[in-house]
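Batch manifest line 723
LIGAND: guanine
JOB: complex structure
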Amino acid sequence: MKWGSTRRPDPKPAREQDVGRFEISKRDGQARIGQLHTKHGVIETPCLLPVINPNIRTIEPREMYDKYGIQALITNSYVIWKHEHLKSTALENGIHELLDFPGAIMTDSGTFQSYVYGDVEVGVEEIVEFQRNIGVDIATMLDVFTRPDMNFEEVSEAVEETIKRAEVSLNVAGDTLLNGPIQGGIFPQLRSKSASEMSALDFCVYPLGGIVPIMEKQKYKDLAKIMLVCKSRLAPNKPVHMFGCGHPMLFPMLIAMGADLFDSAAYALFARDGRLLTPWGTEKIDEIEEWPLFMPSVVDCTPNEVREMNKIDRTAILSRFNLEVTLQELAHCRQAVRNGTIWRLVERRSHQHPALREAFLWLVTEPAQTNMDPIFIDEISSSMERGEGRGRWEENWDWLINAQITPRNGSEQWAGQDTIKRPHVEMARRRLFARWRSQKKGDVVIFHGTSAPWRTRIGELMDRLVETDFEFFLHTPLGLLPLGLEDLNPWAHIEGPEWIWNRKPDLSWCRQELERFNIDNRKIITIDISNTEDIHKRVFSELDIGIQEANQNLRFQQQITDKLCVLGNVSLDDAIAITEGSTFVKSRTGRIRNMISKDGNHLFSPRLAEGGISLTLDGAIWAHSIRKSPMPDSFTEMDLISNVGEGFAVVVVNNDAEPFVKEGRNVMHGFILGCDSWTRPSENVLVVNSQGELLAFGRSQATAKEMEVMKKGIAVKVRQGCP
Ligand code: GUN
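JOB STATUS: finished
ARTIFACT:
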């Protein structure tokens, strides 16, 4: 069905108990596809709320709804309140009729006007009451704007005052949903305070405020820092809105860090000045002969013809162009989240502008290496005086890393040295370093010179090496990979030029890698396996031992042991005990399809696409039986090091969910009593009742924090219930 000149049907109001609830249906790390339920329909996020100036409607809200499918817009309640004709109509007929828009309407409160014009004459309670009375879906309290040029004390006062106003505003709002803006200028601990304290109150959406001047000055690195500090402290069950952010160039980076809503008048304001928005920056209609993007609004005219138009017509057409480009880039970002490629998009877009590149490089390199950053110089010295500051950035970065999904399907496209710093690669590496255990005492042997699949090149060699006392690694552009995990993503699926594989291992770098595996003081032997001619003879002669017998079964046992340790958090002893004496069903290409235990039970099936491992019902029963630590009764999130070897993560559900889960239905948010601190999206988890009895097993869709606070959506995709 095409909506253009036709009316789109009105949206379906959310069920009463769902109004204001936010669910996550798809994710890529902290980037998420979500649904915010309102009385005027569902808002699919990430999305843009176009700003409507009730006095100058460049594009009619009705057209936005019918033609562009805009589900929500934002307008300013203070502007309506100030203009008598708008105010009386809004009070009489409601905001939806005033704007002729059937979707969700968010309103702002006049804070931005106070930043631009100095002050506003409306009261804190008065403006919230007004928004409630005109029937808006999501209102905004009157927060105190924090400018980047304000000093610590001034910003601190503004943050305190905003928090003070928050409770009053929530009381007045009643059942109208409310925005709770986060202020704090460029001071991390004030941003952190604002986010933590506002988050403890029952707002529906958390907008980041005070960022417009930072974006206007193109200080995107500061924006990234602010986002990271705030977002990691905000409850994940509430959407985050970027106040005044509508330049498509910024969407990928902010979405990758968890932004859900954007609003901007940029599409109309830029159009008025003859400027075109594109994902790589801004272009001027006066300087182009060709459209930078061939959008629907300009298919039947040339830039020259548009230049010749009167200002009203020109603005109208360029506004549509800008809106279309904005919607297009958001669609692109949403698809990237679905495909698990949002960080790749961030990386690509980072090349569009030096300030964006700087922000990206700071994100992917510095926080992992240094705890301190000179940009917040004032802040650092003041926080040092208070004995804070160190570790702050690390901690924020961990929040982002810990939500990454790995292993994943598809290839890792190599894009230079940054590739190793991609958040999900970092997560994969951290997990490997934390959980993998060396089983051999001998020298380290590093194979290099070729990419995956290694088994097609040296499969038989691997079978012959398995009984020796050497510890074997593969040299990859994403770091050293233990040989037993040779099919694990991302190391096994790197797409890049030949030469990235041909580099000879740098020994000091290899030593650093080995240290992270807890391997110290061992001799390192590097062997080039690019040429497989006579490979067995050559390798055994380099190792100074005779050619060994092949033992494929033992190699398979070791592979499963490694996977159970790294991907299931199983202790090495338990993993060795269960794989001992096992046999294997092989695929046509000679890979492990199923592992059958020595008792004849099919327990695990490696996932061939990404090198993961799936449990069977018997596998889940075994995983449950080896649990030694008490079942979780809270939702603490911890780093990976803290609970190594404690087994597959457990999710405890309440009595209401028990019968459904046991039948194999998914675990829904809102029915969970606790989960292990190492629960991560996409991990295999065991689902138990409050007595610790196994009910089901499946794959987690959420972090521990999300398990705690989310009220809607799927928490665990159950693979099978346990009768
Ligand atoms: N619009 C742009 N920035 C802000 C802000 O900080 N607060 C509010 N309420 N609206 C804004």
